[in-house]
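Slide 14.
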Amino acid sequence: MPKRRRLLWYLYPSYLLIILLSLVSTAWFASDWLYDVYVEKMISDLSARASLVGTCLARDPSPDQRPEIDAIVKKLGASTATRFTIVLPSGEVFADSEVDPSILPSHAERPEIIAALKGETARSVRRSYTVKTDMLYVAVLVKRNEEVVAVARAAIPVSDLTEILRPVLLNIALAGLLIAAFAGLASLLVSRPLIRTIREMKEGAQRFAAGDLFYRMDGGSYEETGALAEAMNRMAERFHVRLAAVTSQRDELEAVLRGMVEAVLVVDEHETIVRLNRSAETLFRVDAKAVRGRRLLEAIRNNDLRRFIRKVLDSETPIEESLTLPGEPELLLQAKGSFMKDGSGRPTGAVVVLNDMTRLRALEKIRKDFVANVSHELKTPVTSIKGFLETLNEGAIEDPENARRFLDIVIKQADRLGMIIEDLLSLSRIEQEAEKGSISLEPGSLAQVFEAVSKTCRDRAVEKEISLEWNCDADLIAMINPTLLEQALVNLIDNAVKYSEPGKSVTMSAELVDGEIVILVRDQGFGIPREHLNRVFERFYRLDKGRSREVGGTGLGLAIVKHIVNAHNGKILVESVVGRGSTFSIRLPAI
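Slide 15: predicted structure.
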C-alpha cells in the first residue's frame, strides 16, 4: 500500500500547481505572441531591405557588372548586419554579402527562391548550408520593365531574435514568480483551517472504526463539514443498532452451522467458496480458512459437485440429487442446493447442504440382506419339516423304516431352527445390553478363558483329527466379561474346526502389543476370498451356503463375535489367504 500524505500536501501543491500552470501558460502565450509580432515586423523590415538591394540592378545583370554589384551588396550587408543574396531566375547566385558568389551552388531549390519566383510569400526559417546557422530568409522579385531579372534575398540569424526578446521574457518570468509566491502563501493560509477541521473529523472516523460508536464529531465552523459531521454521527448511531442485530444473527447462524451434522457449502456466483461448516471441513478434508476465497475446483476437486453447483446457480428453484465423493471408502452424498440473490434480485451465489448417505445406504442394504437371509434360513427348515410331516401324514408313517428316517430329519431341522432362534436371541440380547451399558466388565485372566474354550472345543477338534493349541501368559489380565469372551472364542474355534481339513491345526494366542491385548485365532482351513473379508461379520452372510449348511452353521456366529468384541470396547479384524487359512485378531484395551 503506497504511503499516504496529509491533505494539506494535496491541496496546497495543487493550488500552487494551478497558479504556476496559469502563469506559465500566460507567459508562454505572451512570449509566443511577442515572438510572432517581432518576426512579422522583422519580415517586413527584411522585405524592405531586400527591395533596397534589388535597386542595385539598374538593368539586366551581366557578368561584367558582377564585381561592382557584389561589392555594393557586401557593403550593405556589413552596414546593416544582414546577409544579402541576389539570385538569377536560373538559380545562379549573382552576388552575396557573406561569401564569394562564384563558389555558391545553385539556389534554385531554396524554398524562399521557389516561392518568390511563383509570386507567393517568400519567407522561410531554416539552417543555412553556407554559414551553418538557423536563418530567417525573405526574398523579393526584382523586375525591370515588368520582367523578372533576379530575386533579392535578405536574411538574419534566428539567434538574434532570441537575444532581442530574452530581456522581455525574463521580466515576464520574474513577475510570474512573484505572483506565484504571493498566491501560494495566500492558498496556504486559506487551506490550513479546513485541513485542521478535516483532521479532527478523520480522528473521529477512526474512533468509529475502532468501535467507539458513542463518540460524536463537532465539524468546525464550516457549513459543509458541520453537515458531514452530523451525518456521520447519525450513521454511527444507526450502525451501532444494526451491528448489534447483525452480530446476534451471525452468532445464531454460526451456532446453527457448527451444530449441523450436514455439510454446508456456500459459494458466490463465480463459484468461489464463501463459507464451510465443520461437517464440510471433515467431509472434504480441508481447512475452511485455507479454502475460503478460492475457486471450488481448486479447493475441492470433484467434478460432480462442481456440475451440481453450476446447475444450482443456473436455476432459480431448489435442486436435489445424489453425488459420489471418490475416496476410500467412496461416499454417497445427498445434495440439496438453493439459489441465492440479493434484495434487487441479482444472483449472489448458492448454498448446498450435503448429507452423507453412505452408512445409511449400507445399513439399508444390510437390512434387506438380513431380511432375505433370515427368511431363507427360517424357511428352509420349516419347509423341510412341513414336507416330511405331510409325507408321514399321507401314509409314510405306516412304513416304520422310512417313518423313522423322516422323523430323524424333522428332528434335525427342528434343532437347526432352534439353533438359529437361539443365536438370534443371543445376538439381540448382546446388542440391547451393550446399548444400555449393562454388560459388566471386570479384570479377568485370559489364560483361564483360553483353558475353558479349549475344554469346550477339544472333543469336536479330536473328532475331526485337528490339533487345538493355545498360548497365553498366566498373568495377562484384561477388562472382560468371561462368559461372553468365552462364547466369542468358542464361535471362532468352532468355525476354524468346521472349515479345516483333518490333520490341520488351530491355535489361540494372546499378548500385549503397543498398549493393546491382541488375541489371535489361526487356522489352516480353506481361507476367505478377499472380496468377502469386509462382509463376513454380517448376519447370515455365507461364503458357500451349501457347505455352511452341511457343517451345521447358522450364519450368525461371526456377527455374535463382533458384537461381543464391541461390548468389550475392542475391535476384530480378519486376514486370510485362500487355501492357506485365516487369522482372526481381537484387540482389547490393556489395563
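Speaker note: The two ends are 61 Å apart (CA to CA).
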